[in-house]
Design brief:
single chain, alpha+beta, four-stranded antiparallel β-sheet
Amino acid sequence: MRHGSKRARRKRLHREIGTFFAVLRSSRPGIHFTATIHATLTPEPSGPYDPDEIADRVRTALRTVAAAAVRDQDPINLPAAQDACAQQLRHPQELGLPGGATVTASVHLQLADDDRAAVKELLTAIRAQAVTDTLTRQRTEALARELAHPAALLARWLQQPDAQITQPPDEAQLEALARRLRGYPKERDEPVERQLLTILRDFLAEFPKEEQKRLLVVLMANGMRAARKPGHADQAEALLKPLSATGGTSLTATDAS
């Protein structure tokens, strides 16, 4: 063991652990973080010790901690990786050093030029894929909305070159398929209002008779008035007039209640 003067040992130890570097894997294969680590011993070792031996132990331990901290971090989000790594290195590390000294460290993460270029290329690919996925989803959703009515399904069927016009699908088949299309998976952030409209439409479709429809309209109108929305109730009851013109059974709000 090399002793030297106390001042010389301290100076050498500070030089060895005060600033050192590490190359750390990220969550993206082939892309790495470059870390600049600054370590501090508290309290500083006393008595004779080998500064090189202590420095090797400190660097190895802190590189291991930093590697574990960023292993699952995405280099696209460098600030988050920086915070995760710094948080782990701030925790005191007990490495069995002379005098019971513990190690803490600060860190600065960055990307080397090649890794920065790789992240830029990755972002370009992700954005391009996101555009493609969005367009595909929009086309699918538009088609589902278009064919969510039996008449639209029948019209699309009639447009097929091999369609047997004299043998069209029956009404039950068309309604069943339209109902499946109306239930097409929606985005999680779709407004609740639109989701409720879909549910309400499917619910009303379960009551095909005119008198049933009239009863449902009256019940909804009564609910709207109870919610102090008479204007909406009037609009709903206005839908009863065409039904009355077709000879449906007369039913008023009083009757429904």
